[in-house]
Write a structure and sequence with these properties.
Blueprint (H helix, E strand, L loop, with lengths): L1 H16 L2 H4 L3 H26 L7 H14 L22 H4 L1 H24 L2 H22 L3
């Protein structure tokens, strides 16, 4: 039942994002949207990384909840990389996103796929499996940020 609920939640989130690109009133709104989603992701991934690195106590229920949230929102930021949003002053998105869109989309999909694997690992409650999956997520996040985010 939990799997069915999770699948329904993810499907609903994905379906809700389809018209979202058309709903951004301007480029600034798109940037705020993607930065907001990234902030949510950062909170949940931060706790997972903290548990995996031993900086905070491991709690299997919290890890599973955090991983579920991450998977539910993992594809949301990418719809907000709209044309013109690269010129917004508060954006740290590099122009390479729009010049290399296929590569950027592949990197985004890899990150989302790694997060899905983390969610599976977190459901086991096995810290070693979570550590392995967290490492993969960290690597794919870092690769995307290194290539497509200005520091």
């Amino acid at each position: 039942m939990k799997r069915l609920f999770s699948a329904a939640l993810i499907t609903a989130c994905m379906a809700a994002t389809l018209p979202a690109q058309a709903q951004f009133r301007n480029a600034e709104a798109a940037v705020k949207y993607r930065q907001g989603v990234m902030q949510v992701q950062g909170f949940h991934v931060g706790r997972l990384f903290g548990m995996a690195n031993g900086r905070i106590p491991f709690d299997a229920k919290v890890a599973a909840a955090d991983a579920a949230v991450l998977e539910a929102v993992s594809r949301l930021p990418y719809i907000a990389f709209t044309d013109g949003s690269d010129t917004v002053a508060s954006s740290r998105a590099k122009p390479e996103i729009w010049k290399e869109r296929a590569k950027f989309d592949a990197a985004a999909n890899k990150t989302a796929d790694d997060i899905a694997k983390l969610n599976v690992a977190a459901k086991t409650g096995n810290l070693d499996q979570i550590k392995t999956a967290v490492g993969a997520v960290g690597a794919s996040c870092k690769a995307c940020h290194d290539n497509y985010q200005a520091q």
